[in-house]
Amino acid sequence: MSAEKNAANFASHEGSVTLNPAEEGVAAVSPGEEGRAAVAGGYSPEVRARLEQDAKEIISRYPRTRSALLPLLHLVQSEDGYVSDAGQEFCAEMLGLTKAEVVGVATFYTMYKRRPMGDYHVGVCINTLCAIMGGDQIWDELSEHVGVGHDEATPDGKVSLERLECNAACDFAPVMMVNWEFFDNQTPASAKQLVDDLRDGKDVSPTRGPKKLCTFKEASRVLAGLPDELAGDGPSAAGASLEGLKVAKANGWKAPEA
Ligand code: FES
Fold it and tell me: What positions does the entry give for [2Fe-2S] cluster binding (predicted)?
């Protein structure tokens, strides 16, 4: 939640736009064409039918309909690249909630975006360990290099940046994420190269996880609970994360019985 609040406070970066979405509206940063379509008066019948089908499947997994709000917000984000006004209305309608209830949840969590993000949403961890290992420097240089600030997208809609709090990968600090896939042990130079490669359309592989990155919309669909069958691809743990396990095995240590 703190990142959401931070978004309202950061000064606008030169060449970009005002950062307070509450004051400036969701169209403050140049969105992709698809994102714009959803803002201007709801979903087309085809899109709505498709979303309804997915939403009904998700809702059927929960004993109480309203419990499906979080995945449904990811679902509409997978359509628009952010939680649009049309998306909020769709969620309210599908779940029998007021729009105020939907907005209250959508604005609480930082993973729900209030304006269109880029195809590749790049997060730089600036929490304590990453910060002192170089995360703050990475953020400063990357933000200047790309020309956008926190939760802002480049005008071509390819990349957006976010200052992230701890990603639970402190043993690989400083860490970055792209569409929630890990890029470990970064430097300012590697971070800038990564974003340049993404903007140039080059294939980029996360340090862990699947070999190829999906888009922000595709990642949002997975978070909605509609898997892309890539969850088991690539290593999920490596390097420093496994050192303690090796020591335990070498010494015959075991966790106490429950
Ligand atoms: S502080 Fe960056 S991953 Fe924990």
Answer: 125, 130, 166, 170
Do 67 and 109 touch, CB atoms closer than 8 A?
A: no
Given a contact cutoff of 8 angstroms between Cβ atoms, the answer to whether 55 and 47 are in contact is no
Whether residue 50 has pLDDT greater than 60: yes
Atom of ligand 1 nearest to the CA of 127: 1
For ligand 1, whether the C-beta of 169 sits within 6 Å is yes
> From the alpha carbon of 164, which atom of ligand 1 is closest?
2
Q: Averaged over 143-165, what is the pLDDT? A: 96
Residue 176 in contact with ligand 1 by CB distance below 6 A: no
Q: What is the pLDDT of residues 118-151, one digit of tens each?
A: 999 999 999 999 999 999 999 999 999 999 999 9
Count of C-beta atoms within a 10 Å radius of residue 121 = 24
User: pTM of this prediction?
Assistant: 0.80
* Low-confidence winner among 26-35, 50-59, 184-193 (lowest mean pLDDT): 26-35
3-class secondary-structure state, position 153: strand
The answer to the question of whether 214 is labelled as a binding residue is no
Contact partners, residue 3, CB within 8 Å, separation at least 6: 110, 150, 151, 162, 163, 164, 165
Q: Which atom of ligand 1 is nearest to the CA of 126?
A: 2
Is any atom of ligand 1 closer than 6 Å to the C-beta of 175? Answer: yes
Homologous superfamily of 120-213: Glutaredoxin (3.40.30.10)
